[in-house]
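re: ur question from earlier - yeah i can do the single chain one, its not a big deal. heres the input i used so u can compare w yours
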Amino acid sequence: MITARRGIRVGGWVFAPGPLPTLVYAVLLGLLIGLGQWQLDRAAEKRSALAARADATDAPVMALNDRPASLARHEYRRATAEGRYDTDHQFLLDNQVQDGRIGYRVLTPLRLTGQDAAVLVQRGFVPIAGSRQTLPELPPVDSPARVSGRIGSGPSVGMRLGEAADGSGDWPRRLQYIDFEAMNAMLDYPLSDYVLVEGSLSTDAVARRSDRDAWRFGPERHQGYAVQWFSLAAALTVIWLVVNTRRPTRGESS
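and the output i got, formated as tokens:
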């Protein structure tokens, strides 16, 4: 039986790793392999999401007045809706950036014709007007309105801290993040659990830009990062082998 102290003889060399370097190596190796696998999982998720997005985009356009939709079943689907905008109860999603400017995404409920429900429509971006204490003027709407766009979850935020909306109670309400349950509680009619991003996927400039920004970090980038992590794991293994391999001393048996 070969002891750890004497090591393993390979030709004219002895491989004798110490317990502490081996422990450090094992921890780092597990970390690097885990990071590489995580990037591969992210790449698989992106491929699956892109496939779902392509299938939904190719599907027939939904008429939301005739057929109810949900985010879980119909994300990315093209859809149309007819109704009247509730301009008295609009939301401003804070901390949004477009073309280097900071501002808000305008979210307006569209009361569907013939229904008591409403669809939340993302109508575009408005920059901050001078002081943050003064809310900007919102773009006007047609009434009645016919909206075409795509179904989505709405703009994301980095972290969700505190309440979704400010405590002023005035309208429009400023949001830190989209919380459909909280928004429903502020209205006296049911609100969809998705956002209808106004504009056609093929023609609307804002929609095209948001799609490009959302998917510029595609599966290929994740695969490239995975290769980097696995390469570091391989390099670490080589270093560990080299550092712990030496020529045998005279006192060591052959």
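Residues 118 and 191 are 5 Å apart (CA to CA). not sure if urs matches, ping me
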